Amino acid sequence: MSTTRTALAQLLAQTLDQAAAVAASAWPRSAAGREARRLVDDGYAPGQPCEIAFSVSFSDALDVRATLAAARSGGVAVADLTSATRGFVTVTVPARVRAYDLSLASRRMDRLARACGGFAAEIGPVTAPQRRAPALTLHATGDAAA
After folding, report:
1. Digits of tens for pLDDT over the chain (146 positions)?
2. What is the distance between the alpha carbons of residues 56 and 114, in angstroms, rounded to a whole number?
3. CA–CA separation, 104 and 14 (whole Å)
């Protein structure tokens, strides 16, 4: 019975995350929407896949090991454990540069940290944006082929 409750709780959390992500992508003043626009202004292509770094805090070092093991199985990569003894780790999460994906990643990290009495804060993309080639502009020379 507890397995069914756990599965239902996970399904409910995923559904709430997706509903919040839809709302974040529809609402122009959402934090995820502003972040997506900022990343595009910084040179990231809209919808471009990237790794987003988060600083995650934990209240107990034992919780860190168990929670990070569960997070790794869910696609979260641990980038830096040097501050783990002080209750902080840096993790990376794959996401696309769009409000929906950024909102999902942020809510997922918040839930991960909350389970251990902590919080998650987005640091930003791990790598610099790929420079896009400047657009070519064609000018008419006035020469007409006869």
Report:
1. 588 888 888 888 888 888 888 988 888 889 899 999 999 999 999 999 999 999 888 876 666 777 777 778 777 888 887 787 777 888 999 999 999 999 999 998 888 888 777 888 899 999 888 765 555 555 556 555 54
2. 10
3. 9
Strand order in the sheet with 120-125: 77-80, 88-96, 49-57, 120-125
CA-to-CA distance for 118 and 88, rounded, in angstroms? 9
Domain that holds residue 14: 2-125
Structure tokens at 77: 């990569």
Quote the tokens at residue 13. Answer: 């959390």
DSSP class of residue 136? P
Other C-beta atoms closer than 10 Å to the C-beta of 103 total 25
3-state secondary structure of 131: coil
Q: Is position 138 within any domain?
A: no
d(CA 100, CA 123): 17
Strand partners, 125: 52
Tally of domains in the chain: 1
